[in-house]
């Protein structure tokens, strides 16, 4: 979720739930009181202007949903209670784009004077752009299979799909032409989790990582993830060198021409227009 996109909030404070969560058997058997604080990030303006509850999220239903979920399940850790509850709320209430959730446990088995212990987390739907490419076998079918796998994943919502284009190979030029495209998605997966899912889909389509920039049945790359700047051993966001790749910028400009690179602050349209002539003219096969 890009910063500032959903600034309106619906707040639920001190929702009391009697449930059975804890590491010790007596906690699971006897149960205890938990208190829930939740902030739902959404857009309340349509409902506010129309005075229409159907355009908003019914906080009474959210309270009932959280209560029933916490009472119908038993977990050892309140970290798990918070994680699973936040996840289910985001899946069940489509207008809720983000969630702050605190689970407070005032009756925790601590043999010392204390007020309560709690776990507080923030979870949200994230916007991401996934570049797709293939130049082995039936490339368009590989891409169609990848799209189908993404659509089956309940943690991913495919919002837009670009037209496919055929381009000349990049890097190692002695190989077949590529078919390239772009997916715009929303996801509950963290960046590394999303990368793992993309690798799983690649492997299903027979991807083998033998040669850098070499031929492949399927290539799925995270180009942008919100406005995140991130680097780990396995993943860099925004994708390295994306601003110099016609086969990335062209389909991306179809879906998000005004999306700004979080480091250079240039729009996709600007980056595409600034490509050298030799990277645009003649790049499409």
From TrEMBL:
The protein's matches in InterPro entries, at most eight in alphabetical order, are given as:
Dihydroneopterin_aldolase, FolB_dom, GTP-CH-I_C/QueF, Hppk, Hppk_sf
Alphabetic keyword roster: ATP-binding, Folate biosynthesis, Kinase, Lyase, Nucleotide-binding, Transferase
Q: Name one Pfam family in it.
A: FolB
Its UniProt pathway annotation is: Cofactor biosynthesis; tetrahydrofolate biosynthesis; 2-amino-4-hydroxy-6-hydroxymethyl-7,8-dihydropteridine diphosphate from 7,8-dihydroneopterin triphosphate: step 3/4; Cofactor biosynthesis; tetrahydrofolate biosynthesis; 2-amino-4-hydroxy-6-hydroxymethyl-7,8-dihydropteridine diphosphate from 7,8-dihydroneopterin triphosphate: step 4/4
Gene3D superfamilies linked to this entry? 3.30.1130.10, 7,8-Dihydro-6-hydroxymethylpterin-pyrophosphokinase HPPK (3.30.70.560)
Describe the location of the 7,8-dihydro-6-hydroxymethylpterin-pyrophosphokinase domain by residue ranges: 212-223
According to its UniProt entry, one GO biological process term is:
folic acid biosynthetic process
**Molecular-function GO term, any one:** kinase activity
Q: Where is the signal peptide?
A: none
* Keyword Cytoplasm in record: no
State the reactions this protein catalyses: 6-hydroxymethyl-7,8-dihydropterin + ATP = (7,8-dihydropterin-6-yl)methyl diphosphate + AMP + H(+); 7,8-dihydroneopterin = 6-hydroxymethyl-7,8-dihydropterin + glycolaldehyde
**E.C. numbers:** 4.1.2.25, 2.7.6.3
State the family named in the UniProt similarity comment for this chain: In the N-terminal section; belongs to the DHNA family. Belongs to the DHNA family.
The job of this chain, per UniProt, is described as: Catalyzes the conversion of 7,8-dihydroneopterin to 6-hydroxymethyl-7,8-dihydropterin.
| Annotated protein name in UniProt | Bifunctional folate synthesis protein
**Source organism (scientific name):** Simiaoa sunii
Q: What is the lineage of its organism?
A: Bacteria, Bacillati, Bacillota, Clostridia, Lachnospirales
Annotated gene: folK
């Amino acid at each position: 979720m890009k910063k500032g996109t959903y600034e309106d909030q619906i707040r639920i404070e001190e929702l009391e739930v009697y449930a059975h969560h804890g590491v010790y058997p007596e906690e699971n058997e006897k149960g205890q009181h938990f208190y829930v604080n939740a902030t739902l990030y959404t857009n309340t303006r349509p409902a506010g202007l129309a005075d229409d509850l159907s355009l908003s999220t019914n906080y009474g239903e959210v309270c009932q949903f959280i209560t029933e979920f916490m009472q119908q399940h038993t977990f050892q850790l309140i970290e798990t209670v918070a994680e699973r509850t936040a996840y289910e709320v985001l899946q069940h209430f489509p207008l809720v784009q983000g969630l702050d959730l605190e689970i407070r446990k005032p009756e925790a088995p601590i043999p010392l004077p204390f007020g309560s212990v709690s776990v507080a987390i923030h979870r949200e739907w994230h916007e991401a752009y996934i570049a797709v490419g293939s130049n082995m076998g039936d490339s368009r079918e590989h891409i169609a299979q990848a799209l189908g796998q993404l659509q089956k994943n309940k943690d991913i919502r495919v919002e837009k799909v670009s037209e496919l284009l055929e381009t000349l190979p990049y890097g190692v030029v002695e190989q077949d032409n590529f078919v390239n495209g772009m997916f715009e998605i929303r996801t509950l997966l963290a960046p590394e989790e999303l990368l793992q899912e993309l690798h799983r889909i690649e492997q299903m389509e027979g991807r083998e990582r033998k040669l850098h920039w070499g031929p492949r049945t399927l290539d799925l790359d995270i180009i942008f993830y919100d406005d995140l700047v991130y680097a780990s051993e396995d993943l860099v966001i925004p994708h390295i060198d994306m601003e110099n790749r016609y086969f990335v910028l062209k389909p991306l400009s179809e879906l998000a021409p005004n999306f700004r690179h979080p480091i250079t602050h240039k729009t996709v349209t600007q980056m595409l227009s600034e490509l050298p002539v030799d990277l645009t003219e003649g790049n499409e096969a």
